[in-house]
Structures are given as C-alpha cells and as structure tokens.
Amino acid sequence: MLEGDLIYSIISPIVGILGLLLGAYVIVKNPYLGTTRTFFVVMVLFLIAGVLDFSLTNAPDGAVATTIGRILVLNVVLIFGGFLYLSSLLPYERRRNWFRSHRLEFVVILLALGVIPAASVEVKNSIYGWGIPDSFSVVALLTIVLALIILTLFVLSRAYRSSSDAAVKKQCVLMSIGIIFPIIYSSFLVVLDQMGALNPPQLAPGFLLTSIVFLYAILRHKLFLIAPVTEDKKEGNRRLDKAKLRIAGRGCYLIEGKRSDEAYRMFMEDVGKGAEGLLLSRMHPDAIKETYGLVKTPIIWLASQPGPDRIEPANLSIFQHTIVEFLRRGQDVVVMLDGLEYLISNNPIEKILKTIYAIKDEIVVSNSKLLVPIDPEVLDPAHLALFEREFEVLKTSGGAGTEI
Which of 156, 197, 249, 289 has a Cα at 20 to 30 A from 28? Predict the structure, then answer.
C-alpha cells in the first residue's frame, strides 16, 4: 500500500506518460528538425519529473525523500530552461542566436542555477505523503523558474512580432499560455502553505495543465511541427497548386531584405507541395537541416574548403553546371541561391552577371523558379540595378517592387 494518497500521487506518472507520448508523436513526425528533438528531450524531463514526484510522495523515509526532492528541483529548472531554449527556435526560419550557438554553456548555467534550490531542499510528511514545504528552497526555485519564464515570454514576444505567419503567432501565444501554469499552481501551493491549509504538495497538476495546452497546440496548431516539408516526389503532387503559392508562376525572383527568412519560406512552400528543390547556401547544410527539417532536398554549401557537396565561390563554371544539370533532369524545379553577395565578393561582377544570365535562360526554358535573397544595402547601387533588371524584384518591407 502506498504511503501517499493514491488519488493525488497517481497524477504525476500520468503527466509524465502524457508528456512522453507528446514528445514521441512530434519526433516521429519530423525526427530531423532541431525543434522536435529539443521538445522530445523536454518531454523526457517531464517523464522524469512525474516519476520523481510520485516517488517523493511515496518515499519510505525522510532521507530518501530529501534525495528525491533535490533531484526533482534540479529537473524542474532544466524543464523551464528547455522551454526557454524551445522559444528561441520559434519561428523555424530564424537564424542561429545565442542559445543555439552556446548550447553547452546554456546547459551549464541551468545546472548551476538548479543546484542553488536543490542543495537546500527540506521535506515534511503529511497525509498526502512526503513533500517539499514552503522554505528557502521553494522560494529560490520559484524565483529561478519565474525568471526563466519571463525570459521565455520575452523571446516568444519577439518571435511573435517578427513573424508574418499567423500560424506561428498562434503557436507563440499557446506556448506562452502553457508554460505559466506550473508557476501559477506552485505559487498557489505556497499561499496555501502560508495560510496553514492542508494541501497535496505536488507540482503535477500544474504540469498537467501545461501538457493539456501542448496537446491542443500540437494537434490543432502544429506546435513544434513548424516545418512539415513533404519532400516526396509522388505523381499525385508533382504539379504545384499555383493558386496556393505565395508567388504564382515561375521565373526569377530577387528577394530584397535584411534577412532571407521569407525566401526560405517560399522555397519550403514549393518543396512541401512537390517541387524538386536545389538549395545553394552559405549556411552549413547541417544547420539548414536542423533549422528547416529538410532531408531529401540536395543542399550545396558555398565554401572555400574542398569537400563533398561543396562549391568554391570562385569556381563559377561548376556552379553554373550544377544548377543547369539539375534543371534539365528535374520537373517542377525550384532553385534557391542564398549567397549571391558571397559570390560577388569572390568574382568580378561581369563573370557573375554572365553566369546569372545563363542560369536565367535555363530557368525560362525549363519553366522553373529561381529565388535569390539579397541585402540591397551591401551591394553597390550600380551592381544592384544590373541584377534588378534581370529579376522580378520582391521586397520584404517597403520600397519599389512587389512587397511580400
């Protein structure tokens, strides 16, 4: 017979199992996306928290309960740190930030923060079993968790404001709602403890509410499944639904703006609807696969270091041959060149223009699409004008040309 009240203690493993199922569902949908892998890890921490919470309630003595309590407190800090890291991955087209570039340092900081409340954990027994009463440990834990939540909400608010996608905005709102329930419930327990009221000292109900919000967000709004790229070349979807494309028709598009996020979104929309894509980028292929979830789409890295699936920027003949041969072999092809500035910095502008002319001719003949994101402020105005003559100009914000 369990020492704790079974009705309350059983909530913890239920929350853990629900979290694990959510994590498994998401990672099966897209195991290559960095967002889904991170969410799965956080849901594994949910499972660990559920097992620890259950074990704490039904611990045989105070010494065992204290040890379990310390591990549980540390695990809770890691969970909310995971939420913070997840928030830095939304929306999926954002480039690397501090969290992505310093993952190891971030984990070390979280562990150090978690040790502060974990080292001072005290436990007490009640009719519900062992629990962590109101103490310095609880106050320190709530302070750290609250700080992580505030920072997470700040990052999510920036993602909300920077994204033009209504679905991503909805995801940011739902994630914000989901992560605040545990801190609200924990604060409620602290108030009840201060009033001397008897209550089950478990965090599980708060995490249960979070799991329910995530369940709704994942199934209804595809939270953490932001890049569902269907790269299958099935006969039924070989022809793109042009009425649904952001930019109807084929041709060459110069997408001017500070960032290339919109160009990547357009590229992924085409690939997701059955187009055969070729991506040439200054970004490392592993980073692209992690950020966008691309698996089958060939990615060529524009880099000076020799190696497979790489093209040196000065070798324009290989660059042109690679694109032209792909266009001739494929059907419904979309090519994206994210690195025109890099090519210009390594070659005379006349050679770049000659190469672009040849590629454009092949794009027209094959009825394909070419997307070229570029920051207009880094080019000489005369050079920019030459490219604008050859492309249909799209602006991500303001200016002449079509705004997207």
Answer: 156
Greater confidence, 54 or 246? 54
Give me the residue spans of the domains in the chain.
6-221, 235-403
| Phi, psi dihedrals of residue 289, rounded to the nearest 5° | -65, -40
CA–CA distance, 372 with 73 (Å, rounded to integer): 49
Q: Please check whether residue 11 is in contact with residue 202, taking contact to mean a CB–CB distance below 8 angstroms.
A: yes
Produce one character per residue of 228-248: b if its CB has 16 or more CB atoms within 10 Å, e if not: ebebeeeeeeeebeeeebebe
The residue among 402, 395, 335, 339 whose CA lies nearest residue 367 is 335
Whether 116 and 175 have beta carbons less than 8 Å apart is answered as no
pTM above 0.90, yes or no: no
Distance separating alpha carbons of residues 298 and 326, to the nearest angstrom:
10
On average, the pLDDT of the chain sits at: 83
Per CATH, which fold does 235-403 belong to? Rossmann fold (3.40.50)
Domains 6-221 and 235-403 share a fold: no
Query: In the prediction, which pLDDT does 309 show?
Result: 78
